[in-house]
Amino acid sequence: MSGPVVDRRAALRAGVGVVAAAALGGVLVGDASRQSTGPSGVLRLATGEPTAFYAAFGRLLAAEIEGAYPELSCRIRTTAGSVTNLELLRDGHVDLALVLTDTARAAQDTTLFPRPVPLRAIGRLYETYLQFAVRADSSVRSVSGLAGHTVSLGAVGSGAALLGERLLRAAGLTPGTDVPVRHLRLAAAADAVRAGTVEGLLVAGGVPLPTLTDLDKDPGLRFLPLTDLLPRRGDGEGLAAAGLEEVTFPESAYRTAGGVATVGVSNLLVCRPDLDINVAEAITRLLVLRASELVPGSAVGAQFLDVRSLIGTGSVALHAGAVRAYRALHG
């Protein structure tokens, strides 16, 4: 996906969301004002690290939920990321979770956990970027060049950590043997890059991430190309099902990242199948009608959040409440 495609998707996100809200604006307001017994209670949402993209989106979504449905309280839980979020959802500790599509797919069989996790999707939210960066003064220019160098692949419990190990293996490296691996949260990984105790770090998120922007200023970053490490499965249907695709960094992402080929990863808002159908429908309406309010301000990367892409949840089936909302809003 090239820079112009990124711009087109960003425009779709803003344009379609605003048009939908203008055309159907009375629907959401009507729900909140007329249904005194409608969505109420406490909704628990698992996001990600406090300084990363999931948490920023989660805060925006929580504000929209509580603004539209005053009787529905949304509590944010910051976590390490996708794997932890799925565990919390599976065990009943949260009601909604943000996850990488690739990780959600793995949770539906025995790839990730001993038993499949029953999941339903509210929608496909964003496409974010795998961002594998080393210091600008590093001699490393490819993932295969990381042999013998220590890297952080993201916190234990994050989807990035799983994808990071896959990338190392695809480059012919054995994690922990050829490449010493640490699993640090983003802030700690940034400190380690500054201190020179790790050569680079991997994170999945929107661009630019403020933590990486700061690192890009001092000591400076180089972003490693990743698309040659994607699995090749015929015409690419396997990649699409996993929520992965080839992308390039926008020119405005970081100082020297523009045009570097990396991996785009789609993200889902998921729940258990037993989430109340009215709650699921209410949240889905917000994703469509309040799209322009749900994009973290710093993000310039490819965004979805329009009704045509929200339903593209791959192997994770849509919740019945989401289906009802999409049919009502889009036919």
Automatic annotation (TrEMBL):
Pfam families: NMT1_3
PROSITE patterns: TAT
SUPFAM superfamilies according to UniProt: Periplasmic binding protein-like II
InterPro entries cross-referenced by the UniProt entry: TAT_signal, TRAP_TAXI
PANTHER family: SLL1037 PROTEIN (PTHR42941:SF1)
Name by which UniProt lists this protein: TAXI family TRAP transporter solute-binding subunit
